[in-house]
What we know:
alpha+beta; 30% strand
Amino acid sequence: MSRAGEDATMMEIDRSRGRFTMGNAALITTVDYQSGTVLEFTNRACGRPQNRDRALFAVSIYETVFPSGKFTPVSFFSGADRTEELISLEYRLEEEKLAVRVHFINDRKDTIRILFQVRDDYKRGVPCACLFRIPLLAEITVNGPGDRIYPPGNPAVNAGGKRIVMPPRDYEYTSDIALPFVICDAEDRTGFSIETPSLSDLNDDGANQNAGKRLSRFETEAEIRDGFFRINPDASFNDTAELAITGLTNGWAEAFDRCRTIWQASYDFSEYQKPDLQWFNECAVHHVTFLFGKEGFDRDRGRIDVEGLLAQGEEFGGYDTVTLWNQYPRLGIDARRQWDFFDDFPGGRAALREAVEAFHRRGVRVFLPFIPWDRGAEESAASMADAFVRLLA
């Protein structure tokens, strides 16, 4: 059944049958909201219905699984403005004191967002371990056998099987970068990109109501297909999980490019467009060199081993820059400030200047760190800026 000729943007509601259909240029879905069932969720480019007869959700609590069909639909709302169409559903399971709201949001372009909000009024008077399942996420397919799966925590590997992108669980710091879950046909063309946005910057699952962070860490297809993930509902309708599903026609590459564009949209990159900083765009390999680290310090001669360090970088094609890191993990042990560690280096700042000049002769640029939040009791923002300028001079 071809979908190419259908109206690109549509929202049709059949209240007599308890159904609605929502569509845009890339996707179309039909939901039987009375029974809590997704009748189809289709990428129009495939030309036939996909992902048929999926439960809207399932909640596991008190050692029992309650699919959406066990819940009673209690409200239906539809609305639209110039940019989006919305349908909101609410379901209740009174005997278990559970309620779930499901919102379908159509951007009228290529994405349908599905937002789940779960409420638990504590049947036993206290919170209880609760798991949630979204069958459309856990069971989504393009053609079935032969589909190519890219879990968000391990989206692509090179010919040797090594991850091209670092998985989120390996980040040392909190990151707002969350890659999508991508599923495509065998040719890596037609398929779906599923983002799991979360506005929270908290990595602590217990403090973070939205499960998007947890979903974005799935590294295997098995984790996705198992389906159930932990949630933390309370006596309010928190944003429990959100899927932003986009129809793809150019596979993983399209999904990654889209993810990068969306991420960059919230940042001002004008500083990086300055002509005097364009050299940095050509730098690919960087090394953070601890001043006394064994990889870059010659202990016998008491100086930075410039040639030895750069020789190690040849394995990666050569370092473009190095950062001479002065403080961590020693800062905080005593009263020394970050500037004192430069002076404590054998030979002081004169030796550092000599090392920098040696790096420059090899065509390698050098960064010196300034950590504004590591401020001594007697320091101010102005005095720290002055100290950094003196160091550079």
